[in-house]
Each structure stands twice: as structure tokens, then as C-alpha cells.
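2024-03-11 09:14:02 DEBUG pipeline.ingest accepted 1 chain
2024-03-11 09:14:02 DEBUG pipeline.ingest length=161
2024-03-11 09:14:03 DEBUG pipeline.predict start
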Amino acid sequence: MNTSIDIPAELAELKIIAPAGFAVALHVHFTTPAYLFQTYPTKWIEEYGRDGLVMQDPVVAWSFANTGTIAWKALAPSDRAGVLARAAAHGLNHGIGVSLIERDSRSVAFFARTDRAFSPDEVARIEAGVATLHDATDPDQPLGPEAREGLRRLSVAFTHP
């Protein structure tokens, strides 16, 4: 773990850029991330989990098959289960997906706004922020119990404000 990176500040900046919420899954192994930070509305998180939407989400599918960024609207034609429409019902009207692989480890992240699409500058900043978080939580770096507990508390704080 890179302790010189202020993870809470990085997450707070991403929240400003994506005021409707985000989900950042770092170092995903099979389907389980080492760290997960979510700021989506609680009702959406509950519906998404209850109805198993991760298995039908076109943005998730794209993110595990590709790297880079994509606007949610580009995947709307492949959204047979209506996941994006259901997200919009919770105010998640405009979004992007981000996927990266570095050192054989994949991180994926999803960001939303209610009011407008993300600007190119915002997309670039989000992509850089995900890369920073990916590097800061590198599983190949030793992580002491105190740092691990701090990240766990931070994950809980972001997911359950």
C-alpha cells in the first residue's frame, strides 16, 4: 500500500465529480474486490443487491471484458434487463464505467450524475483517480493490521454514511 496517497481525500474528490454516487471495486479477484467503496443511494444499493443485478449489468460486463472508460448510454442497447433504466429511477441518469488492469490486477469503478453527462475533463480525472486508488491499495505491498482496519472503516463509512 502506498501510504503517501490520501485515500479519503481521493474518494472525496471523486464524490464531488460524481455527486449521484459511485462504486469503486479495487483489485477484484474472481467477483470479490479487495476494497469496495460505494456512495450510491442506499435504496439503489439494496435493490441492486436484492435483485442480483450485478449479473445483468451491461456496464459491469463491459468492465470485465475491456479496459478504459465507457459512457453508460453507449451500453443501453445491450441492457436487456433494464438495469440502466432502474438506476435512472434512483437519479443515476448519466454515468461512466472505468476498468483498468495493472500488475495482473483489475479494478473497476462506476460513477453517476443526475444532471448531465460527464465532461471529458471529468472523465480523465475520474480515470486518474481510479488509477491512483488502484496503486494506493496494491495487494503486493505489505499492509499492516492498522492500515487494513483503516481501509475497512473507510469502506464502511462510504458505503453506509
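2024-03-11 09:14:41 DEBUG pipeline.report Helices lie at 7-17, 42-50, 58-65, 72-75, 83-88, 120-136, 145-159.
2024-03-11 09:14:41 DEBUG pipeline.predict end
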